[in-house]
Amino acid sequence: MQIDTTVIGAGVVGLAVAARLSEHNRPLFVVERNTGFGQETSSRNSEVIHAGIYYPTGSLKARLCVRGREMLYRRLEETRIPYRRCGKLLVATDPAEAEQLTAIVKKAEANGVHDLEALSGDQALEMEPQVKAVAALYSPSTGIIDSHRLMRHLLSRARRNGSEIVYRTTVESVLPREGGGFDVLVRYPDGEEDRFFSRRVVNCAGLGADRVAASAGIDLDACGYRLHFWKGEYFSCQAPDGFINRLLYPVPLPNTVGLGIHATVDLGGRIKFGPNASYLPDGELDYSVDPGHRDSFHRAAVRYLPALQAEWLQPEMAGIRPKLQKPGDGVRDFVIREETDKGLPGLVNCIGIESPGLTSCLAIADYVAALCH
User: Fold this and answer.
1) Architecture of domain 88-140+228-323 in CATH?
2) Do the domains at 2-44+148-226+331-371 and 88-140+228-323 have one common CATH topology?
3) H helices within 51-127, ranges in order?
4) Which of 42, 179, 231, 296 is the most exposed place for a label (fewest CB within 10 A)?
5) The whole model's pTM is what?
6) Does domain 2-44+148-226+331-371 have CATH number 3.50.50.60?
7) Residue 130, Cα to own-chain centre: how many angstroms?
8) How confident is the model over 197-224, as a mean pLDDT?
9) pLDDT at residue 256, rounded to an integer
């Protein structure tokens, strides 16, 4: 069997890439190790459409987030996928944090985000009566989305273009063939193995993306492709109706290890807090939520929501972020590279696609398409 293009991974980025590439590159296969699409990082996050405020200027994260945000809002309008451009408040709870807001505005403007509004503490209180702040930034471009509906739309578009998706199938290796293309070795749930030829491979394997790259002969440490897993837990909140109406964020953590324990309101009006950021040194997929972390969540959130009661918080879910940085490292950008210079023409690696990957998914798909031509 010979395939033009194989996309590994059916998370939101893999599906966006498949939908985009299948417009011209056929036949196209999507190979996914889970029983359905979007069962890992893509379904275990805050479902926020980010404005592009925090990321290093000129980075792929900044450029693709800003472009992807507008592409995504247009697509959501066209397709009537549920979303809400609810806006968010970035809250400073003391003078030291307030000073950081000025630097955040400068970075946002350098990234092409020009709609941030500086607020006094009183102005923030007018917008969200439960908030405690000495100053805040309001981001009207931030929103929330039904990420499952988005992924279902992308899958449907890829299938309409003739793509096939195979679930419960693990890519064991991507082996370059002399003369071009790749032998893709896969394993089925019963342990049986198979292989097929693919002219091009796009690695969107998320938590397994570095393993796929290594199978093609890439030295992960020499290239800086080794992933480090960070778990983020979430707690749901049984607050009274209307307790908050917008997303509420603290000033972000250093090196964007995380954006701090923030409050989101989903499309059904349900509030959740999270995520925290815990390094998983053994790389295990641990999705448990420790109920004992409730007090630390409450301490973090009560700084900007003083009326929040600890007993309102209940463990909800956890997600794992495939980051390219381990504790103590500086911020790392997305890796989205066509690997001809490594002797692997036709292989495109998408590695370390964490936040803002959901917001950026359509822009990432365009970027990959450009690399494929």
Assistant:
1) 2-Layer Sandwich (3.30)
2) no
3) 60-79, 95-110, 121-127
4) 179
5) 0.96
6) yes
7) 29
8) 98
9) 53
